[in-house]
Specification:
Structural class: alpha+beta
Order of helices and strands: EEEHEEEHHHEHEHEEHHEEEEEEEE
Shape: elongated
Helix content: 25-40%
CATH class of the largest domain: Alpha Beta
Number of helices: 8
Length: 335
């Protein structure tokens, strides 16, 4: 098991990571999700041994890795830019780390063949990597990382250079490979869809700190904060003021109406709160938003309907621009 405890890191007087702690269990994939500058890639490099933390401990199976250089940690790294050797063919690229370890030639050949089989590149051994597509090159990079039989795999925006279709295909394959090999993994991305597709557990970073942690379904259902709800694009987030306590919740007044909000937080009359209005319709009729349609965008099998007041909802049927609509929605209280 990997354990990261109380990591701090700064550059030129600016704090990049602030008291970050998490663990990765055997066979678990943990996604570090955050916008550019949130500290996720720096954190990955510290775990890999490519950078030193100002303070804190990285350990594996109880052993402190502070004095262990990157090449002796037995961790595999896969980068967005593939980092392949252009003058080597596929087989030579995959075998590179094994040759550095001076393994017997027959073992190298066996590991190369097994790794290429895992990533569906059997028969590509003698192809030049410069002749491969982006998706195929990323598979070679993954095969190279797998060939060393790492204790931990780390991915730094591995699909960022691929188009949407290739990204989705490789994402599914990657998830399957990790399940087959049972290798624990850290997956760094700024893409919410990637994170929720890949992760057994998600850590959302903001300003160098973990602001939300949990299994994907729980994070999606309970963002807990206005920042996380906005970052994940869960719906309309705005301010409200608590007016009175109701059975199982609170009556909250906002610029978009008065809502009865189920909430377990302790509030007092006059408290300011953040509200999340999910854009999907509900049938209970307890909370209603209304507005004039300004734009309609087709998104797969539904229509995203933007309103003049800045809110949006998803509807199964297309309304007319200029039409005034009134719909029932789910309203949640955030910290």
């Amino acid at each position: 098991m990997l354990e990261v405890q109380h990591i701090f890191k700064g550059y030129d007087g600016k704090t990049i990571l602030r008291d970050v702690s998490f663990s990765v269990e055997a066979g678990e994939t943990v996604c570090l999700l955050g916008a550019s500058g949130s500290g996720k890639s720096t954190l990955l490099r510290i775990v890999a041994g490519l950078e030193e933390a100002d303070s804190g401990v990285v350990s594996f199976d109880g052993r402190d890795l502070s004095s262990t250089p990157a090449h002796l940690r037995d961790f595999g790294l896969v980068f967005q830019d593939y980092a392949l050797f252009p003058h080597f063919d596929v087989s030579e690229n995959v075998a590179f780390g094994l040759k550095m370890r001076r393994l017997p030639q027959n073992e190298i050949a066996e590991r190369v063949a097994n790794s290429l089989e895992l990533v569906n590149l059997r028969g590509f051994e003698k192809r030049q990597v410069t002749d491969l597509s982006g998706g195929e090159q990323q598979r070679v990079a993954l095969a190279r990382a797998l060939a060393t039989r790492p204790r931990l795999l780390m991915f730094d925006e591995p699909l960022g250079a691929l188009d949407r279709t290739l990204r989705e295909d490789l994402l599914n394959e990657l998830r399957s490979i990790l399940q087959q090999t049972n290798i624990p993994a850290i997956y760094v991305t700024h893409d919410q869809e990637e994170a929720f597709a890949m992760a057994d557990r998600i850590l959302i970073l903001y300003g160098g700190e973990i602001v939300r942690e949990g299994v994907p379904a729980d994070v999606w259902a309970n963002p807990e904060s206005a920042f996380v709800a906005r970052f994940l694009g869960l719906g309309n987030v705005f301010d409200g003021v608590v007016r009175e306590k109701m059975n199982g919740g609170w009556k909250v007044e906002s610029g978009f109406g008065v809502f009865t909000v189920p909430c377990e937080h302790e509030h007092q009359k006059g408290d300011s709160v953040h509200l999340l209005v999910r854009p999907h319709l509900v049938d209970d009729g307890s909370n209603v938003i209304q507005g004039t349609v300004t734009d309609v965008i087709l998104q797969q099998d539904r229509f995203k309907v933007n309103l003049k007041n800045g809110l949006y909802v998803y509807l199964p049927n297309v309304p007319k621009v200029g039409e005034r609509i009134e719909v029932s929605v789910k309203v949640e209280c955030l910290v």
